[in-house]
Amino acid sequence: MVSSSIDALFLGSIPLSSNEEVFATISTALNGRVKQIPDGETGPRANFIGCQYPVLPNASLQARWGGQAPADQTTLDAKSSDLNPIGYDDWAISSFAVFEDLQKSGKIPSDVRFQVSVPSAFGVVQGFVDSRFCAEIEPLYEEKLAAALARIQSSIPKDKLSLQFDLPFEIGALEYESGNITDPHWKAWFPKVQQGLIERLARLFKLVDEDVPLGLHLCYGDIGHVHFVDPKDTGILVQFIKAIHEGVEPIHDISYIHIPVPKDKTEAAYFEPLKSLEINPNTKLYLGVIHPNDEEGSKSRLEAARSAYHGPCGVSTECGLGRTPKEDLESIISIAKSLTT
Predict the structure, then answer these.
(1) Which of 68, 87, 95, 234 has the fewest CB neighbours in a 10 Å radius?
(2) Which Gene3D superfamilies does the entry link to (predicted)?
(3) Would 3 be classed as within a structural domain?
(4) For residues 60 and 124, is the Cβ–Cβ distance under 8 A?
């Protein structure tokens, strides 16, 4: 049994049928062990940013997503009105109404926050837009994201809200630059990748009100339960976290950062870079050690991580659960309870 100061984080997507079922299930099973609950990203959001490519102008899309721009075309002369609404504000406001009703009825503890998880503009553009047009489309999508975040924060009480940015494409770009990925799909369209990512995060952080907790989900993907690259250790993550705390954290406090832990990483070597990680003591590091049907392995991964990192921490799954079989959720909740009791 580990320290009672360890709590659990659910990253966003949860394989249940509705936001009401998500709220009720997580709150009931993990009462007192979670500080915030997402709505589960049910329906069109179940496949991460799959709901976002229809937002973008058809002409801007990569060929794999139906883009058909001529090979010699280098600009679209696009404007903000060419993008459709991104939808995250509508989903959040609708889900919060359900969350609020359950909280008022006592089914969700009064101190638990409603968690809204969104991608970065970089992630959506990198994922769907032809590299020729990324620099043109990114600020337009960023404008839409800024409007959605402003509406979310004006519609949901600040003392009930938590915001999380999901950053898999950022990690992919850093791994590509480091030579660990060769697929050009992960290549950023700008030089000095880490610097460029920090500049983009700075713009994102400025969109979050000072009194709204902000978290980051660093991710290696989970398509078919396979990473876009299998990390050898936490080195890239630690390097990025240090850059974030130096270049971005002064803009807005970071409530937590989540890092993934692959199932086979139970040895100390994977966690060794964490020994050099010194971050704000008010920032909690959520360790993605929980894997379904593997309670002993989850405990071993947590112990190995804690041997390297001694700051405030919690536990989580390796990635969001949108593509996880529903029958595995019971095991995940059971392991989360065992690690946080």
Answers:
(1) 68
(2) 3.20.20.210
(3) no
(4) no
Contacts for 299-303: CB closer than 8 Å, 24+ residues apart: 299/2, 299/338, 299/339, 300/266, 301/261, 301/265, 301/266, 302/2, 302/339
Q: What is the DSSP track for 10-68? A: --SB--SS-HHHHHHHHHHHTTTTBSEEE-B--GGGTTGGGGTGGGS-GGGB-GGGT--
Quote the CA–CA distance of 186 and 265 in Å, as a whole number.
24
Amino acid 294: pLDDT: 92
Q: Which two tokens stand for residue 57?
A: 């102008």
- Residues, the chain: 341
DSSP helix/strand/coil, 86? coil
Q: Which amino acid is at 20?
A: E
* Interatomic CA distance for residues 280 and 262, integer angstroms: 25
- CATH assignment at residue 163: 3.20.20
Helix locations, 168-218, DSSP H: 168-177, 193-205
Mean pLDDT in runs of 10 for the chain (341 residues)?
A: 70 88 90 91 85 93 89 91 95 96 94 96 96 96 97 97 96 91 91 96 96 94 66 92 90 95 87 91 93 93 93 91 83 93 71
pLDDT of residue 224: 57
Inside any domain, residue 299: no
Nearest to 20 by CA among 6, 4, 5, 40: 40
* Within a domain: 207: yes
Residue 270: name the closest of 227, 220, 308 by CA. 308
pLDDT of residue 204: 96
Tell me, yes or no, whether 335 lies in a domain: no
- Answer whether 0.90 is exceeded by the pTM: yes
**Domains contained in the chain, number:** 1
Q: Which residue range(s) make up the domain with 77?
A: 9-281+318-323
At 2 the pLDDT is: 39
